[in-house]
């Protein structure tokens, strides 16, 4: 083989000297790996010794023990009698709850502010710039404490501030009207999701057919049937009730409705406003990166304004926006761990309490890291998939 | 800019063109173009003016008109009477020494104050392009040693002050500056390692960077405060501040490594090959040819990382180290002043903002300079 490819230089014999790059490479690698292994082994032996002195058993067996820690704000059933494992799951759910809703809200607000910064209205553009500058240049933790203090300074539940009927803002947090969900409601929502998915597939096929023969086929009858009629039918057949439940003040607290605890609400506001300032800058630079000629040319072709934005400017801007946006989403998720400062029980806070109760420092911190590495990996994979989907298809 | 933009876009009628010559006319023209260009724009402007006006009046009344500026002693009844109506700025003159310097001995607080001034001077000098020479490195070493001497003391009649009494702004600046001073070289080494041809070194660097960047800073700080003592042999007891500092250095190293790597990727291949052709060794090649170009490329993102890092030092609050934010939070534990945390947070916020805003302005200036060539 080697003789048939003339480009390849003949393999030189190995010399046992550092001036041979291959030997030098091998030498340095072995040296670095040996040092790394030695350091880790040394740390590990110290840890094993210290743990045996302090009579702390290693391993994750403590997860099966009774936690005995109260969790105020939980979306899944939990009592202090449950195990540590259950408490950790509650923590993960709480982290995801703040991260997912935070990402959605931050994206919406950030995009609006980013577009506002490019507005031809001078006042709007300046205000957006001030918003971005102030929020970016203050530590997130300071902002979080600030919002939390403001939240605590709100009037008590009896004198709650009531902007609209059924919405109360007090030092008990934000209370919203809610729709109580029963089995019939769940099935309707499942039908809605299925309808949306089937509709997307159908629309794809319609567009593929249009590509073949050039005939436009309207998609709206399918939308009507799959997204509106199907869930409505399921809801009617199962007899689901969609009555809205308004919260009511009873004694010192609210009954019914959806309550966002002040800790959760403060954390959500802080994360959303802080991240939206960064997203605004990303969106602005993304839109500015699309050459003016693109939209000018599209307009010259007589395309409608909305069409130009949707099919010419945004797809090109998105290519610039997506990669930095991914890191902002990751930042928001990691920053949600600041919850521990205001007492919202996310995974970090629960792991910290566990650590103090059981002394299982290594395991608790390992669990935090595992959870965050998994979430980060998930977000990265999704965003990479999305990025590949919208990437420029080159010849 | 297309060439069309040089032509008068919208030839004005003679009458209006004449009106534009006077100052009043110019103002009207500006308003017309920037605030009342269309019906939607006009509605937007009026709406914003209304909201802005209301907010300004409310802020004025709370922050200035109804505010209490000074009280005698710890008697905060005047403040409490106006709670929610007017600010109690009296908390700042009462507590600013504690917020800025923590529990540092009161009579010796000129020392941390001087340290803060040295820090600021060091930043200003380092930002000037004319000082970007080898001597700057020496200056950093001298300045950091001088700050250490000032803070610890124990000579020339200055009493010795242990680290657990340090607090406030100097601690924030120490964490940020030492974190960068040590994290930056570490980041450069890791960035080089990540681009190395040797698989073992490359994967170690990738593992380090991705592990640190994948987890929140808080978990690193927990590691430093809780796990670190477990990993040390008996009798070795490292101070809490130093442990947090080590966590910060590792954290900064990982993030700076990614920024530097971006710069390394921007250096054309020809530069590497030319250096190889000259027979330079690996270290000579990187130190003399590649890194100077790579780092120049990424100065604006580096400054942005510095800003993020400066803000992140506030997280030490969670492990109980007395930085600026922690002293602020502690200052209002005092029952007499408990209700006035917003005022204290505003005060601390202004300090953080001044530092970050100066840095972000500087970074934008550099970017503009580069854009103009």
Q: Which pair of protein chains has the largest interface, and what are the residue counts? A: A-B, 55 and 53 residues
| Strand order, largest beta sheet of chain A | 1-2-5
Largest sheet report of chain B: none
Domain module count of chain B: 2
Q: The CATH topology of the largest domain in chain A, please?
A: MetI-like fold
CATH class identity of the largest domain in chain A? Mainly Alpha
Query: How many beta-strand segments of chain A?
Result: 5
Radius of gyration of chain B equals 27 Å
Percent of residues in helices of chain B comes to 55-70%
Integer average pLDDT of chain A? 84
Query: For the record, what is the CATH homologous superfamily label of the largest domain in chain B?
Result: MetI-like
What's the N-to-C terminus distance of chain B? 18 Å
Can you describe what's shown?
The complex is a heterodimer of chains A (about 400) and B (about 375). In chain A, about 65% of the residues lie in helices and about 5% in strands. Chain A has about 400 residues and is mainly alpha-helical. Chain A has 3 domains: about 20-55; about 85-150 and about 260-390, MetI-like fold (Orthogonal Bundle), CATH 1.10.3720.10; about 185-235. The longest helix of chain A has about 35 residues, at about 85-115. The model of chain A has no long low-confidence stretch (mean pLDDT about 85). Chain B has about 375 residues and is mainly α. The two termini of chain B are about 20 Å apart. The model of chain B is unreliable at about 1-10 (pLDDT under 50). In chain B, helix 8 packs across helix 11 (about 240-265), helix 10 (about 215-230) packs across helix 11 and helix 14 (about 300-310) runs antiparallel to helix 16.
